[in-house]
Amino acid sequence: MERSGRLGVGIIGAGRVGPILGAALAGAGHAIVGISAVSQQSRDRAEAVLPGVPILAIPEIIERSELVILAVPEAELASLVSGLAATGAWQPGQLVLHTAAPWGTGILAPATAQGVIPLAIHPAMAFTGTSIDLVRLRDSFFAVTAPRAVQPIGQALVVEMGAEPILVDEADRPAWAEAIAIATSFSAAIVAQATEALSAIGIEAPGSILAPLVRASVDNALARATPTTIDLGSLLHPDEPEDLS
To answer: What confidence tens digit (pLDDT) does each residue in 163-203 have?
Structure first.
């Protein structure tokens, strides 16, 4: 499957993820045709990360885009896709990409039935929603789930954003999501607890003190981690994945 190198990209969702992925694709030469944003905070974020990109209504974004990025909260994704399908908004041949960790392309079935090309791409990265994320993309990995013929498109988009693609089967997406959630929530909880303990004894700027220790500890743990020493089955619990959008 071959497509022209330059795509008109529309982004639905101006949370922490959507604008950053848009900026990364713009840096690779794609044209960002519009982004949806509801709250003032999301509008401000969109304008800061994607200056000059128009804020448009969702149907207009879909009408203008060759690639639609759905960077919305996980709980809203299914209803958004099916609702737009009910209005006949999706366009045959259009690439539709969602960023929700737990699901592959099955959740895009209502759009796929109308002829779109489905992609599920999830970044294993904690986003801030600021330009610093564009630098962090270079050291990150993205799960790519798509029909076999479409996998090269997903991989190419990830590479263009500066990250490393990893193919993850549809059935394995829940395990991927749980692993990411464990790593994110565990590290955040431990840092918060240690920071509060230092603050309680009058230590100023505890985060600066803990930063090199935490980084070294994580590096050491990752260096020791191998498939034979980690039992993922015992680690994966049904915790709610972090909403990246």
So the answer is: 999 999 999 999 999 999 888 877 778 888 899 998 998 98
Report the C-alpha gap between 107 and 91 in whole angstroms: 17
Of the candidates 145, 170, 195, which is a domain's last residue?
170
- Measured between alpha carbons, how far is 119 from 223 in angstroms, rounded to an integer? 32
Domain count, the chain: 2
Instruction: Report the C-alpha gap between 76 and 82 in whole angstroms.
Output: 10
| pLDDT per residue as tens digits for the range 75-89 | 999 999 999 999 999
My answer on whether 96 and 28 are in the same domain is yes
Longest dimension (CA), the chain: 62
Distance CA 141, CA 232 (A): 19
Q: Could you tell me the pTM of the whole model?
A: 0.81
